[in-house]
From TrEMBL:
One of its GO terms (molecular function) is diguanylate cyclase activity. The lineage of its organism: Bacteria, Pseudomonadati, Pseudomonadota, Gammaproteobacteria, Chromatiales. This is diguanylate cyclase. Residues 186-319 form the GGDEF domain. PANTHER family: DIGUANYLATE CYCLASE DGCM-RELATED, REGULATORY COMPONENTS OF SENSORY TRANSDUCTION SYSTEM. It comes from Rheinheimera nanhaiensis E407-8. Its EC number is 2.7.7.65. Pfam families: GGDEF (PF00990), PAS_4 (PF08448). It catalyses: 2 GTP = 3',3'-c-di-GMP + 2 diphosphate. One of its GO terms (biological process) is negative regulation of bacterial-type flagellum-dependent cell motility. Its cofactor is Mg(2+). GO terms for cellular component: plasma membrane. InterPro entries: Diguanylate_Cyclase, GGDEF_dom, Nucleotide_cyclase, PAS, PAS-like_dom_sf, PAS_4, Rev_trsase/Diguanyl_cyclase.
Amino acid sequence: MSQAQVEVSEVHWLMDMFQTVDVGLVVLNCDYRIQVWNGFMENHSGLTPRQVRDRYLFDLFSEIDEDWLRRKCDPVILLKNRAFTIWEQRPYIFKFRNYRPITGSAEYMYQNSTIFPLTDARGQVTHLCFIIYDVTDVAVSRIELESMNGRLKQLTKTDFLTQLFNRGHWEENLIQEFKRLQRYQHKSTLLMCDIDHFKRINDTFGHAAGDVVIQAIADAVRNNLRATDIAGRYGGEEYAVLLVDTPLAQAAVLAERLRKSVEAMSIAYNGQQLKVTLSLGLAEYHSGMTEHRQWIEAADKGLYQSKANGRNQLTCYSADSPLL
């Protein structure tokens, strides 16, 4: 084989590799007109090398942020440095659809890229070469993992049955509010409420009915909350609501509204309509409290007094006049 034949054969191998390699290869001149477009880019864009040859990149792909890409490429041209893009910062340069079956949940191809300069015989940068890597598998796995971690984190805060905050997370919020109130002259009120005669529901209709009632009351609590209120399942059939920046008189209006809404409810279970009521206790924070448990105890005292007075009512506790 002659030297010329060897050289032609080597060029053929190189061209074959260039067209079949599983990364995108794009060469632009310094005016951002496309000079080279390999098989990967053709397969994913649907545009042949002939169709894109000498076309202005930003005319063909309007989704590319021209200012951003030029800022990326200017140092490559001026300083002959390489530049990189990663999907975490920008999901893609070229918005290609994702066709991988394993990562079918992704609408488009996530991409990393490398941009490097191509120089002439005098060392002047005349072209830019882009290597486009499909990293959809990695990106989707990372996103799903982060989403799963987020859901797990949420589960550690949430009561499974009611979807309100669980006692631990709710009490953490109460402690933070208690510390804030110790520093600033604000008024916040704590509401504790309990389902009346709940044991009777369990004994008569079973624990499944009890769960339905607990969920229904949780929905009523949630429907009567404002954006700033923090509600949790304190335990069993007892609920706690932190009414932030709410004085006792205003809190009493909100609590009474909750009591009346529950009183008016009819909860469907196995073809029967169950009626329940709430007993409620309120306590406003005052400076004599030295730790948050005293606040809980004060609201609880109001709740127990409501029970003692016949249930289905609200009692407000205050430091000056323990039961109003």
